[in-house]
Structures are given as C-alpha cells and as structure tokens.
Amino acid sequence: MKINLFIFLVICLFMIHEFEEIIFVKPWIDNKSTTEQYSNEMWIKNKEAYPSAEIIALIIFEEFILLFCIFLIASLTKFYELAVGVTIAHTLHLIILHLINTIRFCVFSPGIITSIITLPLLILIIILYCRKNKISWIKLCICTLASSIIVLVNLRLLYKIAPLLDNWLNNFYKV
Q1: CA 163/CA 45 separation, integer angstroms
Q2: Which range of residues forms the domain containing residue 25?
Q3: What is the tens place of the pLDDT at every residue in 29-41?
Q4: In degrees rounded to 5, what are phi and psi of residue 35?
Q5: Model confidence over 55-81: pLDDT tens digits?
Q6: Number of independent structural domains in the chain
Q7: What's the CA gap between 157 and 22, in Å, rounded?
Q8: pTM, two decimal places
C-alpha cells in the first residue's frame, strides 16, 4: 500500500467518524445532561465545549486541518511513521474514549457506531501498511505518543476557547 492511499483512506474514515459526532453530540448532550448517571461521561463532562453543532463542526474542522497538515508533512518529508503514528493515535482514541465509554456507561453515545465500523478498517490499514513498508518501530512509537499528546493538548485548548468561538460565530454577520 502506498502512503497516498493510506492517507486518503485514513482521512475518509476519520471524517466519517467526525460527521457522526457533528450530527449527534449536541442532541445527545441535551438529552442526557440532566441524568445523574451520565455526569462523568466524556461528552457531558465537557458539555460547555459544545454549545452548538456549529462549534462542534468548527472544532472538527480545525482537527481536520491539523490532520491534513501532519499528513502533508509526513508525505512530503517521507516521514511515514508520522502518518502511521497519527493513525494509531486516532485508533486508540476510538478504543479508549468511545468503546470503553460505551461499556462503562452502558449507553450508545455519539461516535460509537462509526467507531465500531471504522476501528477494524483502521487496524487493517495500519497492519497492511506496516507489512508492506519499512517502518522504524522506535520512530513509530515516538510519533504515536507525540501525536496523542498533541491531539489531546489541541482538544483541551479548543474546549477552553469554545465559548469564545461561539461568541465570534454568533456575532460574525452582525453589522
């Protein structure tokens, strides 16, 4: 498998998952946030970061741009461990946040359906790519760890500025 096909497939699977979140996060939060049982659930704990579907889409748009830039750098510099490392970080996110969260709270939350669908595909793509290409396992581990940290820090920053983004978006067309 060539790196360009790998990147294309990963971006498509990433966006399929993100579309589910854009569509279902806000209604899910509105429906479940008053239920005590879900007070520690990841979407409910961070509900202030999701004031509207538009802000969720804006946050995901920023994540897509970040992913695109990382993949572009990996492709142009032939640093393919970076592309695979980001993909492994995303795959771990599906397992740790979505699957474990669903099992923990015994409820289907936004992102779980596409996590179940895309997870085996992502694992297959990673395995096929690593089998067919020379990969430095040390570089891959470092890139996976660094990617995970960058994505988490970026998401925390987006959570913090979400109210500012909401204010900006609501005032964008005002004269």
Answers
A1: 15
A2: 3-171
A3: 999 888 888 888 8
A4: -90, 120
A5: 999 999 999 999 999 999 999 999 999
A6: 1
A7: 18
A8: 0.90
